[in-house]
Amino acid sequence: MGSASGEEPVYEVVWPLGRFVTQPLELAPGLTDLNGKTVAELWDWAFRGDQMYSILNEELRKRYPGITILDHKTLGTTHGVSAKKFVADLPELLRAHGCDAVISAVGA
Amino acid sequence: MAAERSGIPAVSIVATPFLALGQAVAKGLGINDPKLAEYPGVPLIDTDSELRDKVVNKLLPQILEGWGKRASTAVTKVEEPSFRDIVFRGTVEEVHKFFYDHLWTDGLPIIPPTVDKVERFLQFTDRAFDEVLGVCQPEYREATVWNVAVNGVMAGCRPEYMPLLIALVEAIVDPAFLIEDAGATPGWEPLITLHGPIIKELDFNYEGGVMRTGRQANTSIGRFLKLYMRNVPGCRIPPGTTDKSSIGYTFNVVLPENEDAVAAMGWQPASVDLGFASGENVVSVRSCISITQPVYTGGSKALNHVQIIAEVIGQSFAYWCWLGIRNLSWYPLIVMCPSVAKAIADDGWTKDDIRKYLYDHVKVPAGLVEKYAHNTSQPDFSLKTLVEQGTIPAEYCESDDPNRLLHVFIKPEWTSIIVAGDPGRNQSRGYVQNQRQGIPVSKRIHLPHDWQAMLTRARES
After folding, report:
1. Which of B252, B267, B281, B344 is close enough to B445 for a disulfide, judged by CB 3.0 to 4.6 Å?
2. For B52-79, what is each residue's pLDDT tens digit?
């Protein structure tokens, strides 16, 4: 703290946050033609995701007749007591099912 | 992000008001521009045809583009201040404005965190200033002894509170606490409870008006925790993006137990219920989404008191129990004034007797549980399905009768009872915890080796 005569004290202050320690993550390569590909649907069992997926599946199958869809009941839920374990196990689960793309719903 | 990390392109469906949160969470996980498909509006309010229209015409194109169009968006490390770096010079008002503009404070005035003031806090711990206590989501920032002290200074704490502040942060960075969910829409607040000789040593209020502002220790430490959650995990209301509390309420001051009153009635302090020895300095943090109305009870029979507590406090817990049932995780808290607890104890009841009574007598129709779930977030919530999946015990669906009664208190032993408040009045209140988010986490408070001498000097300064 310092001050000039007759003036208010001046304070030199430090930063209240902590070091940002995340590791940069590159997005996976893109996928344009979904024919012959397998798409996994993940759901947190909330906000009408099941209805959204039902409509999406109709539309995806119309556009890509060769698509395989693993619906939201296949892999498990992304919410609730076992969510952390589910996310930790997800890479292996996706590999085991031969997944090429993922949709996750619903953030609300 | 787990999919992207595995080399599989992923798109997340997010409703409009949560896009900024999704971006902030992704940044914490290492991606600057995550592939989000925006659902415009509020899914639970839309009609079926509106939902279909949005899925086909809004979501689907974004999902396809998200899978197909990709560029490098990994976060890049930016230079950030180190521990003793001076980030600003100015008067009290100028410092406050600088911190406010950077979203580093809550709008109330702060004590400027100078190196000198921070170091005075550090004298009250034997731990290294740069010790990392944990990493906090959603911003993925390190919690350190140093930034505990900085935020303690800002909040108006005294240096001798430092051992307690460190224990508090150890509690919230414990993975079981789920600090990353502190910005969830129910708008839960952390509620700090305190046990042990430190209550008197630091001059906490545990009697009349215990949950009001007005005593420095209770108030400034309550404020500290919210400031810390703003600055290190990064939980900020707008113009921040990570606190999605729909309405919320403001911070709780610290709730210390009246351990003299507890001892006089022959009960053990609540810290013993948590597995600690009587007389240990222990701090606990739990989430709290609401506080019940004050309930007055009279008479010398335990039943007089517990019946009304069950009827009024217990029933006001019923609305939120569906989440506790679904997650099998819910920790209600009842706070009783000493006179109420003494009347119950004098009639021969233990705290376990109270817990069992509440468990046995507070019930809610299953149909209401499902209705509340449907309107909160899960239109297809079904107790029957959860039982069939093996998620919850069979007792939750012994018939299809929507009027069958379910226990509101999921397990008797999950209810905490704390004695505090005006010894001259006969009131109780309930504190509703938010299921698996912010479960009670307790930590011992480690004091520096010459605590008593330091405390004496601090009191004289």
Report:
1. B281
2. 999 999 999 999 999 998 887 778 878 9
Q: Residue A53 has which token pair?
A: 């997926």
Tell me how far apart the alpha carbons of residues A60 and B64 are, in angstroms, rounded to a whole number: 9
pLDDT value for B416: 97
Helices (H) and strands (E) in chain A, counts: 3, 4
Please check whether residue A46 touches B, CB under 8 A. Answer: yes
User: CA geometry: angle at B228 spanning B82 and B101, to 5°?
Assistant: 70
Angle between helix axes B115-122 and B162-173 (nearest 10 degrees) is 90
Is some CB atom of chain B closer than 8 A to the CB atom of A4? no
Q: Among B169, B83, B110, which Cα is nearest to A18's?
A: B83
Residue type, B10: A
Kindly identify which residue of chain A lies nearest to residue B153, measuring between CA atoms.
A16
Query: DSSP letter string over B351-372?
Result: HHHHHHHHHHH-EEEHHHHHHH
- Chain B CB contacts of A34 below 8 Å: 67
| CB interface of A with B, residues 50-69, below 8 Å | 50-52, 55-56, 59-60
The dihedral built from the CA positions of residue A105, B367, B375 and B287, taken in this order, carries a sign that is negative
pTM for the model stands at 0.93
User: Of A102, A108, A81, whose CA–CA distance to A90 is shortest?
Assistant: A102
The structural domains of chain B, with segments of one domain joined by +, span 2-68, 79-187+212-251+446-461
**Higher pLDDT pick, A80 / B411:** B411
Give the whole-angstrom CA distance, residue A19 versus residue B232. Answer: 9
CB contact (8 A) between residue A25 and residue B5? yes
Number of Cβ within 10 Å of residue B426's Cβ equals 19
The ipTM assigned to this model is 0.92
In this predicted structure, the answer to whether residue B381 has a pLDDT above a threshold of 60 is yes
Q: Convert the pLDDT of each residue in B408-436 to its tens digit.
A: 999 999 999 999 999 999 999 999 999 99
Instruction: Count helices and strands (H / E) in chain B.
Output: 20, 16
Point out the residue among A23, A32, A106 whose CB comes nearest to the CB of B39: A106
What values do phi and psi take at B270, rounded to 5?
-60, -25
Which residues on A lie below 8 Å from B150 (Cβ)?
Answer: 14-16
Phi first, then psi: give them for residue B213, nearest 5 degrees. Answer: -70, 155
Please check the confidence at residue B89 and state whether its pLDDT lies above 60: yes
* Per-residue pLDDT tens digits for B192-227: 999 999 999 999 999 999 999 999 999 999 999 999
- Interface test with chain B among A11, A67, A89, by most B beta carbons within 10 Å: A11
Q: Smallest CA–CA separation between A12 and chain B, in Å?
A: 4
- For residue A2, is pLDDT > 80? no
